[in-house]
Amino acid sequence: MASRVIPSSQCGLGSLLWLYTKKGIKDLTNTLVWTSSKTTTSVKPRPPFIEKGNGVEPVKGVLDFDPSAPPPFTIGEIRAAIPMHCWVKSPLRSLCYVGRDVALVLVLVVVAACFNNWLLWPFYWVFQGTMFWALFVLGHDCGHGSFSDNKRLNSMVGHLLHSFILVPYHGWRISHKTHHQNHGHVENDESWHPMSEKIYKSMNDTSRKVRFTAPFPLLAYPVYLLYRTPGKSGSHFSPDSDLFQPSERQDVITSTLCWTIMVTLLVFSSCIWGPITIFKLYAVPYWIFVMWLDFVTYLHHHGHQQKLPWYRGNEWSYLRGGLTTIDRDYGWINNIHHNIETHVIHHLFPQIPHYHLVEATKAAKPVLGKYYREPEKSWPLPFHLIKNFVRSLRQDHFVSDAGDIVFYQTDPELFGSSNKKLN
């Protein structure tokens, strides 16, 4: 038996809003035909728990459920519950979403440039940054092959969308594939995986506080692309990185070249229209996009009230790892960022197009049972998720170096009294 370690204007925009409904996009398609080691204890399987002070307590109402136990169903049973049409990819429909998002990005640029009013710039930054995030998700679908079955079309659209927002398409695509194939594994997972206790203790106090203090984690993505995360080496821009196989070298070079061309275009544009203009039109929305990306992806893997397991060795499996992801509700933003909030089914079956994820999730829930964690319903804007994010940063710091099933532990000294107060 494996050991389980318990942790101590209205300017013509209105006419485009109909496109943000599923009916709108379908109609358009038809028209176009992460304490000390002394607190680590190995025990028998136990019910789920939440952190309380420096200890844990059971979650009320689910005492009969252990989220780290092997599920009583197979991935094949989940697959069988999902309607066959949910697996069908429509290149035309996918391209319609691209056209919709690109059109709105261009409209926002024109409106902002025409008015050039400091009262309106903050609204532009938020809206445009959110649209940059939407473009990323569509490029993300290209990387998974859920955009279409045509690899050349996926690569072309993926490069155009991701290069525009300074993401090296193939470099990211390959590392993201590694993330999906190893999610929930302490050592082998690629993004937002927990630090081991040894790595955490090797960091200085400043590095720890920066990593776990908002808003710094929300600015992490460009750093991750350049240097990856603590305990891992390599760069998404280098074909010689540990991330890649020799056969992937040319793909990485191509994506880095596309990224370089976009940077060159931004510099050239700054020389023509001025750096302040490019800063307002592009740079600020870019950082809003980065914050969206880090916020959403972090909360897909952290911040649930019920502590979720991480695995090592033979305890890990693709299914058990995928079941530790968390669905979220972002209100009206769900459709803007292409249903990426339905993350459990996406993690298990990344081939399913985003426009079928909601239906696929509903169909799979009876099979998943308590392994599916119903997301808290959002108001039109997902302000409720901020508390989940901040709480997780205060509590989810590292996992034990020992044990095949481990949970996040808290360093009570990291934030001192503020951390104790939060608990």
Automatic annotation (TrEMBL):
Keyword entries, A-Z: Membrane, Oxidoreductase, Transmembrane, Transmembrane helix
Occurrences of domain Fatty acid desaturase (ranges): 118-372
Presence of keyword Transcription: no
PANTHER family: OMEGA-6 FATTY ACID DESATURASE, CHLOROPLASTIC
GO molecular function terms listed in the Swiss-Prot or TrEMBL record: oxidoreductase activity, acting on paired donors, with oxidation of a pair of donors resulting in the reduction of molecular oxygen to two molecules of water
Subcellular location: Membrane
Species of the source: Stephania cephalantha
GO cellular component, one term: membrane
InterPro entries found in the cross-reference section: FA_desaturase_dom, FAS_N, Fatty_acid_desaturase
GO-annotated biological processes: lipid metabolic process
Protein family: Belongs to the fatty acid desaturase type 1 family.
Name of the protein this chain belongs to: Omega-3 fatty acid desaturase
Biological or metabolic pathway of the protein: Lipid metabolism
One Pfam family this sequence matches: DUF3474
Keyword Transmembrane: yes
Spans traversing the lipid bilayer: 102-119, 257-276, 282-299
Domain Fatty acid desaturase N-terminal, chain residue ranges per copy: 57-108
